[in-house]
Amino acid sequence: MRPASRFRSARLRGGVGWLLVVFVCSTIVLFALLYWLTGRYLLHEVDERLRGEFAEFHAVGRSDAISTITALSHRDIASTRPYGVFDANGKWLAGNVSTLPKEHDREPFNYTDTVRNEDHVQTAHYRGIIIPTTSGWRIVVGHSIDEILRFDRTLLTTLCAGVALTSLLALACGAALNHLSNRRIGVIGETAREIMAGKLNRRLPTRGTSDDLDRLATIVNTMLDEIERLVDEVRGVCAGIAHDLRTPMTHLRAGLERTRRRAATADEFAQAIDTAIGQSDVVLNRFTALLRIAEIESGGRRASFHSIALHTVMRDVVELYEPLAEDRSIALTLDSPAPIEVTGDFDLLFGAIENMLDNALKFTPAGGAVTASVKVDDGTPVLEVADSGPGIALAERDAVMRPFYRSRKLEHSIPGHGLGLSLVAAIARIHDATVEILDNQPGCRMQVRFAREGMQSRQASSRHSAYSIDLP
User: Fold this and answer.
1) CA-based, 20 to 30 A from 158: which of 143, 225, 374, 438?
2) Can you point out the beta strands (E) in 203-357?
3) Burial class of residue 304 (count of CB atoms within 10 Å of its CB; 0-12, 13-18, 19+)
4) Which residues contact 62 (CB under 8 A, 6 or more apart)?
5) Are 313 and 445 contained in the same domain?
6) DSSP character at residue 402
7) In which domain, by residue range, is 279 found?
8) 165 in a domain, yes or no?
């Protein structure tokens, strides 16, 4: 066993040991309290009986006292309920209590006496009280407590046996729990080592019992799912970068080699340099897009968030793309029935709408239509760009949000690098919004749905009631 494992096992055994000590001490205290309360209760019952004799003998006369005590002393239970009468000087007058105890009047006390039981003499234990009479005599009333003492000893023996058995049971349970915990922690530790070794698809085992280890394992497994997803995204981005940059870099290298072999004039060299610069710009633009996505997802832009007029941003982007839509014979329509404000970053929202609109215009054929709208749906502000193009297959709607992914049926017919919608998704995440891709029948409807609490909506005034711009 490694030192760290021995240390963890020692700490676990130490924790179980402390729990065992606390449990045993608590049991001892509980049993001691039970023993003390039981003894106190039994003695209290005897004292109440003795005090009950006080009213009977306190006002008794001398002759009645002697006759009564003499009669009580000859009963069958005289050995367990002894009585004695003494004069003011402590001289014995009657009864089977031969000596006046040196105790306070009216206060119960313990005393012992020697009694003959058949053929042997034994010491008996009593609880007694001295009752002063109105005639000046003193009567001693006793009550045997041997049965109580025997019960106390039996109870003490039983409690000690209970403590011993409870301690053994606690020790056995602690050892079993320690073994089960060590075994389960060992399995979790082995799985964790496999995950650290690179097997990110492994998960911590759970038993479905909802105990502490199960809840902790569930939390860790959820974290591992997210880590695996992020690692897969990183791998996909790396593979996408390598695949996407291979073509322009190959063209760049091939062009430079051709220039070195064939170019003979300054114009040919200048043309080759311009081509190389163009290829370099393609590569740089893709790296710029990746850096922008990383910057957005870092969350640093949240510090500049403020109230943004969403309809104004949409109008600016639509006006920017009006000439492109007209050149491609696409009907571009802006629909914004009421001013809507959200909390966000103007430049980021402008970039998101720009990429959505550029994507729609790129895939919409001539004679088609693209509609950009800002609306409130079920209390939440929504940005929507709808087109009449080929649309996006249901199976690809999540994939197109990943960097460098492009639809298989369109990636060779229409140029692009697969980063536009990834940028839209990143901007939506930093604004606590969600991106949805829906079917427009025909075409595609892309929506950015903001959180309800992030919206600041205001009613339009009479002079800014509503507007709709139809751009040819």
Assistant:
1) 143
2) 306-309, 331-336, 340-344
3) exposed
4) 135, 137
5) yes
6) S
7) 212-297
8) no
Contacts of 57 (CB under 8 A, 6+ apart): 65, 68, 131, 133, 139, 141
CB–CB of 129/108 below 8 Å?
yes
Give the predicted TM-score (pTM) of the model.
Answer: 0.45
For residue 177, CA distances in Å to 192, 218, 230, 295, 380 come to 22, 21, 38, 50, 53
Amino acid 28 reads: I
Percent of the chain with pLDDT over 70: 80
Average pLDDT over residues 299-324: 81
- Tell me what pLDDT residue 459 has: 37
What residues form DSSP beta bridges with 78?
Answer: none
Q: Are residues 68 and 115 in the same domain?
A: yes
Task: Report the amino acid identity of residue 348.
Answer: L
Could you read off the pLDDT of 176-189 as tens digits, one per residue?
A: 877 777 888 888 88
Amino acid (1-letter code) at residue 55: A
Q: Could you read off the pLDDT of 387-427 as tens digits, one per residue?
A: 888 888 777 777 777 766 666 655 555 655 666 777 788 88
For 77, the 3-state DSSP assignment is coil
Residue 189 lies in a domain: no
Amino acid at 365: P
Nearest to 136 by CA among 110, 105, 109, 111: 105
The rounded mean pLDDT for the chain is 78
Structure confidence at residue 458 (pLDDT): 39
Structure tokens at 62: 């001398």
Query: In this structure, is residue 202 part of a structural domain?
Result: no
Judgement on whether residues 239 and 314 belong to the same structural domain of the protein = no
Does 285 share its domain with 310? no
Structure tokens at 435: 């991106």
Residue 177 lies in a domain: no
- Answer whether residue 193 shows pLDDT above 50: yes
Are 408 and 418 in contact by the 8 Å Cβ rule? The answer is: no
Ramachandran region of residue 451, left (φ > 0), alpha (ψ -120 to 50) or beta? beta
Q: Tell me which residue of 130, 174, 186, 157 sits closest to 2, measured CA to CA.
A: 186
